[in-house]
Specification:
There is one protein chain. The protein has a domain of 62 residues: 434 Repressor (Amino-terminal Domain), CATH 1.10.260. 53% of the residues lie in helices and 6% in strands. It contains six helices and two strands, in the order αββααααα. The chain has a two-stranded antiparallel sheet with strand order 1-2. The protein is globular. The chain starts with a helix and ends in a 6-residue tail after the last helix. The relative contact order is 0.13.
């Protein structure tokens, strides 16, 4: 990759240099991929976060946090997987962030 692909001078051309990343180099993290996969399964099965929360007797915010990877709650991870009909290991990657 050429140096000019990564460096862009400020509009005035006088001060500072901004470091940029090429768009194709930016990759989603594991949590983003996890969230997309779970959301797709929810849509396919016609299930909302609120419905999952009601079945697991918790708040929808907790389900949202677990799906997004912000909370590590095995009880809810297992419940979400069971409701969606897939193994928990396919939805939630342990130890990878």
């Amino acid at each position: 990759m050429a140096k000019q692909d990564l460096i862009k001078k400020s509009p005035s051309g006088k001060s500072g240099v901004k470091i940029l990343q090429k768009k194709e180099e930016i990759k989603p993290n594991v949590n983003q991929l996890q969230k997309k996969q779970i959301k797709k399964l929810m849509i396919d099965r016609g299930i909302t976060e609120k419905e999952i929360a009601d079945r697991l007797e918790t708040r929808p915010q907790m389900i949202c946090d677990v799906i997004a990877g912000r909370k590590n709650a095995p009880r809810y991870e297992e419940g979400i997987a069971e409701i969606l009909g897939v193994p928990v290991t396919k939805l939630f990657k342990k130890g990878v962030k």
